[in-house]
């Protein structure tokens, strides 16, 4: 019984480390994964941000003879926006640059998903939930994913 209670305590303590569904913003796309990701990348570069990487999870799975539905992650940012967050708390560097996942669900629908910046950074000491960069990140992610979704 003591082992069971210890295991439960460890699991409960680890819960804050996992993003809940409330922390993840999902936007339905009108296109397939590749088209949506191309639109997202164009929107990001058009907004003056830097694309650091485009990760194709399905292609990676195929290289090891495994299958995944189409899924890609775009990693991007703007040092003018991210640097103040990292100055306020260096641990923000674990969450930045920003990331957006574009994926196909089991029903064939394409989605864009990203972690809400307020939830992502708001629990870090030294970072106010009202910080201007959090509002700017939130607005930018909304606009960029809206464009990518075909809105």
CATH fold-level topology: TATA-Binding Protein
Distance between the termini: 54 Å
Largest sheet: 5 strands, antiparallel
Coarse morphology:
globular
Order of helices and strands: HEHEHEHEEHH
Signal peptide: 1-19
Domain DUF302: 55-117
Pfam families: DUF302
Keywords: Signal
Quick structural overview:
By secondary structure, the chain is an alpha+beta fold. The chain has one domain (21-149): 2-Layer Sandwich (TATA-Binding Protein), CATH 3.30.310. The protein has helices spanning 2-14, 33-46, 57-63, 79-88, 117-121, 132-149, and strands spanning 24-28, 50-56, 71-77, 98-104, 110-115.
How would you portray this structure in words?
Residues 55-117 form the DUF302 domain. Keywords: Signal. Residues 1-19 form the signal peptide. There is one protein chain. With 151 residues, the chain is of the alpha+beta class. It has one domain: TATA-Binding Protein. It has helices spanning 2-14, 33-46, 57-63, 79-88, 117-121, 132-149, and strands spanning 24-28, 50-56, 71-77, 98-104, 110-115. The protein has a five-stranded antiparallel sheet with strand order 1-5-4-3-2. A hairpin with a 5-residue loop joins strand 4 (98-104) and strand 5 (110-115). Helix 2 (33-46) packs across helix 6 (132-149).
């Amino acid at each position: 019984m003591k082992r069971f209670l210890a295991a439960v305590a460890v699991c409960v303590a680890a819960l804050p480390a996992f993003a809940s569904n409330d922390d993840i913003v999902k936007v339905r796309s009108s296109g397939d994964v590749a088209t949506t990701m191309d639109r997202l990348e164009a929107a990001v570069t058009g907004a003056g941000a830097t694309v650091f990487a485009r990760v194709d999870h399905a292609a990676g799975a195929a290289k090891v003879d495994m299958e995944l539905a189409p899924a890609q992650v775009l990693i991007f940012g703007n040092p003018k926006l991210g640097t103040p967050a990292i100055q306020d708390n260096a641990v923000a560097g674990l969450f930045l640059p920003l990331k957006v996942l574009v994926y196909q669900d089991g029903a064939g629908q394409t989605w864009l998903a990203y972690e809400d910046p307020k939830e992502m950074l708001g629990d870090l000491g030294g970072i106010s939930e009202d910080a201007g960069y959090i509002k700017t990140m939130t607005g930018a992610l909304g606009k960029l994913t809206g464009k990518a979704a075909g809105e």
